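Our collaborator T.R. sent over the components below with a one-line note: 'Predict the complex.' Nothing else. No constraints on interfaces, no templates requested, no preferences about which chain binds where. So this is a plain run: every listed entity goes in together, and whatever single assembly comes back becomes the starting point for the next discussion.
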Amino acid sequence: MSKNILKLSNQVCFPLYAATRQITKLYRPMLEKLEVTYPQYLVLLVLFEDVSVTVKELGERLYLDSGTLTPMLKRMEEHGLVERKRSSKDERVVEVSLTEKGRSIEKKAEEIPNRFSKEIHLEQDEFDELKRLLTKILDQV
Amino acid sequence: MSKNILKLSNQVCFPLYAATRQITKLYRPMLEKLEVTYPQYLVLLVLFEDVSVTVKELGERLYLDSGTLTPMLKRMEEHGLVERKRSSKDERVVEVSLTEKGRSIEKKAEEIPNRFSKEIHLEQDEFDELKRLLTKILDQV
DNA sequence: AACAATTAAATTGTGTACAATTTAATTGTA
DNA sequence: TACAATTAAATTGTACACAATTTAATTGTT
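Returned assembly:
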């Protein structure tokens, strides 16, 4: 009845919320070897694709705001992974790029998605469908 | 090539991570009317099902530990939503239950999942499949 | 040029998350 | 019964996450 609507087991959001955190935990030991957290790893992924991005661009790509990114990027800077530089063209803008050390992690970072997909026992088409559905949600909100 | 493995767009974890946060944002305005956060809402859902649960049980149901739950439950207690009581049988255990005020939210809380599913434009079978895949992941990790 | 409007980051404040440790109570075993 | 091992919460410390505000630079308009 109406009560069932509220059952945890009937919600989509709850398994989404829980699975995300459990998977992040799965990533943790691998990421610890690179001395980064999962959100920091995502920043690296963006910077492996593009040599330099602004904080604003990073925020748009990762769905994060400056309140999250600014302190995180400062931590990554302290760890010697990235460089933050005010744009000379527009002093409001901060350009983020990899340091030599940050760049040197790329090889090790490549191994992670593979090892991960081995720990999650989904068929390839299940992976694809999951990604499709999540991306569809992301495009709508 | 090997580089593509690291592309954000090729990862499952990233849309999972991002979609979770975007959906939580969607929930926020509705939950604000009840004066609870999303994780607090989950605690309420458990307590709508079971009159009383221990912190340990809550942690198992929501995949959270006492480091997260203890301060959260204290906040909910301060807001008059729940009651925390040491078990007399076993003084180590804390039993959590709804107050009158907490119980009174149930009707309003019931409306949320419906409104939510209208904002996310997925077919019923897509919803079901998404839930199935996420639950499968949760069961494995 | 002057200045209001806009924009990009940074800051502030609150609330999760979680690893690791601590505290206190209970249980198992010599 | 003593007391080591285990267990449940709480605590400590670090790192997101995000709403709301602030700061500083740039742009648009008169």
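Summary for T.R.: Strands of chain B lie at 52-54, 82-86, 94-98.
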